[in-house]
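User: Could you check the structure of this?
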Amino acid sequence: MSELILTYGAGGAQGAPVAHGLLDAGYRVRALVTDTARNRSLVDAGADVVAGNLADMDSVRRATQGVDKVFLMLPFSGRGNPLDYARNAIQAAKEAGVKLVVLNTSGQTPEEPTGLPMLDYRIHLEQLLRESGVPGIILRPTAYMENFLGPWVLPRLGAENVLAYPVEAGRPTSWIAAQDLGRFAVAALGRPDLAGLSFNLGGPQALRGKDIAAVFTSALGREIVYESLSPEQFGAIMGRVVGPEAETAIVAAYKAGEAAPLDAMVVAMDRVLSHLPVKQTTLEQWVRQHAALFAQTAQA
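Assistant: Sure, the predicted structure tokens are below.
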């Protein structure tokens, strides 16, 4: 019988490609979600979808029973303490004798504390897994291409042909597609011999603002201009999305990003691909995959 893998976040943009990728690879998948009715696609694909959440230790323990491996990522809602959620998942995995946890940090982990909880929690998150005694592999993605589908991009992209994003136009970034994170996670879950290793993940290209605009122009067939949002502008938008209590932290985090070395978001993928050989998606391929959505936005 194939291994049973518990996936967290399987109903979201980052976790869904992992769950579906595992099913396609022949694994049995259990998905812990807060609302089973909203995740019928996982059920239809063959996953065992169970109700619960990371704040409820009893539901986490039930979901982890009989599991061989775990894919762990934490919700980003601006509410609750993500480290408490991680402790629950890791403790349940330890109690159940899980053979491997693959952790998606959903962002880069600072090399040293920054004083910003929104960034530094990843340092403590990784430490929790390492000190638990549960074998683990850590995946640290840069920035997701799916961020270009956010409300800080789509309205102006459709109305003005302006792609506005809170990264300076001259800062290169190795954008990664969520589907590729899914592929890396599936590959890592099949490599327990890599336990103890961490991998910074990026896409196949390091692109600046003008490069991004050129890709969107080519893929969508209309002239697109890149515009850098300030941290304050982006924080105001995100405050409306995830709640005003998160706005100050978001602004501070993006200000720290502006102060980081110019190549801080560039990832050389040779080492990763030597261990986890995954075919990666270019930004142009990704934009073309979502061309219909971008066209609908332009017509709205």
